[in-house]
Amino acid sequence: MDTEALREWEFWENLSAEDRVINTEGEPSYDDVGVAYMVMGMIGRPTAKSSILDLGCGTGRLARQIHRKTRCNMHVVDISAAMLAEVRCEATNVFKHLGNGREIPSSVPGKLDGAYSVTMFQHVPQEAQLGYLCQVAYLLRPRARFAFTLAIGSGSEKPDFLNHKVTWEMAFDWVKQAGMLTEEEFVDDRGWVWFSAVKS
Q1: CA 95 to chain centre
Q2: I need a surface site. Which of 78, 133, 142, 148 has the fewest CB within 10 A?
Q3: Is the peptide bond prior to 159 cis by the omega test (within 30 degrees of 0)?
Q4: pLDDT tens digit string along 102-159?
């Protein structure tokens, strides 16, 4: 684990149990059911036969909602074992994968039917954001979709821990570099910048 990734790991791993719950259940404050429905629409409405990746799942706030609605095969990835331990689901088709903050674990299967990453990319440096986009694209089936959020800024800001911003131009270029096509991009009422990309 590089120095920056180690710093990220320490931050998430050392949150108190109370803070982990707050981070997942109340902060950032949003309607997890509504966001889950939006994500499902952006990745093509998964079914029970689908295999879906949640990259940077935290304690599984969205994964629980999506699995509850679809019963799909869920692969949840996070850098923190403590956060993953909070992903509680009795279903046998929810698979937890501990990551290193820079690479998707090799235990995550290919031929995924969809993937999403919500409020995670800004927590890693720009090169890691691009790396994740390329890795997700590699694991997706052709025509499968990836929905994700980015922190958009001028690109001149000094990177701040947990707030690594990119420009719109970088985002569109990264999607192309990953072998995907941008289907939609928008800013929601919380100020989150959303992208939906399809594997070409």
Answers
A1: 15
A2: 142
A3: no
A4: 999 999 999 999 999 998 999 999 999 999 999 999 999 999 999 999 999 876 666 6
Tokens of 14: 């050392």
Q: For the sheet with 112-117, list strands across it.
A: 94-98, 73-78, 51-55, 112-117, 140-150, 193-199, 180-187
Assign a CATH topology to domain 3-199: Rossmann fold (3.40.50)
List of long-range contacts for 156-165, beta carbons under 8 Å, 24+ apart: 159/125, 159/126, 161/7, 161/8, 161/11, 162/11, 162/122, 162/123, 163/122, 164/121, 164/122, 164/123, 164/124, 164/125, 164/126, 164/129, 165/122
Q: How far apart are the first and last CA of the chain?
A: 32
Domain boundaries, the chain: 3-199
